[in-house]
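As noted in the main text, all predictions were made from sequence alone. Below is one such record, for PDZ domain-containing protein.
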Amino acid sequence: MSSTPPAADPSQSADGVRQGEARRTRRLRRPGAVGVSSFLLYALVFAAALIPVPYLLQMPGPVVNTLEPYEGRELITISGTQTYEAEGQLDMLTVAVAGGPGRSVYASNALGSLVKGSETVVPSEAFYPLETTREQVSDQNSADMVSSQDEATAAALGELGIDFSTVVGVSSVAPDSAAAGAVEPGDLLLKVDGTPVEGSPEGMAAVKDAVASSDGPVALTVQRDGEEHEVEVEPHDVDGTRAIGVVMGLGYSFPFDVEFAVEGIGGPSAGTIFALTIIDKLTEGNLTGGVPIAGTGAIDAEGVISPIGGARQKVVAAEAAGAEYFLSPADNCAEVLSAPGAEDLTVVRVDDLHEARAAVEDIAADEDGALPSCAPAHS
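Prediction:
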């Protein structure tokens, strides 16, 4: 009987063994390759998340009720005249900022802020030139806050019909200048060589002319901390012109003292709330009637209210603090109405301090039916 040998099993042949091993090797290597790729992808994403980016993040900041003590002190103290107890909730709103000169913001931070409706991501260059330092930012914020306090006080007194005078003040003194050590920032310039200095742009020009034309020391009468001082300054030659090295600005001389305890808070946007708080302290009764009101807006001595930055974040902060009404500069209305939480607030448009005061009084009297509105007109 003849027999046919069984066919060879390819898996047992030398070639078959190599092919089987190759197939198994490929099957084993694929998961490893995917794992390496995934690891590299995660590593790249992680690394990208830690890359600094030239952006600022604006976030809702602390809310401060100006009618209550702030960090253990009255936020606004008035002395030298009759004042009245002021109670209620009149909220000053702030914006917390991450990034900018001297502070890094990473891609992960920016991406996270984009997801949140309450935060805004903006290019740093939109606010600060590239060469700006952190110290310069801090100094400017502090200067803006001091200016807003003076402007708010002037606006409040003007609204109440209380007289005050405009004066020429010293904004800054250059280091190693002629005036350094003799004149200080915050001094009021009352006289130059015995001639009274008018509180106006013309008065500032007169001081510059007197210094430039002098052929010896210049006698200045300055007011500092309520007291007058006589100082002599020998001008230096600066680019062919005699100068004493001070930057002047218009300031105010009030008939009583108004002090602010707002350390750590900068910028001009609290002016409107400051002015309303001063009015509340100088008039009988509670201006707000106990209704929780928040607001924002820069203000000038004439009482004109100007738009501010970070309105979106301030709406979020106001709603979270329990405010029922939000006072908004007219040019901020669109941003305010689109902010998360705006639907829970009655947004009131304010163009000047007189209008803002009237609105708060109407709210307190529960007569808010005719308040100036930010809501778009319907056709």
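The first strand starts at residue 52 and ends at 53. Residues 1-29 have pLDDT under 50 and may be disordered. These features were considered when defining construct boundaries for the mutagenesis experiments described in Section 2.9.
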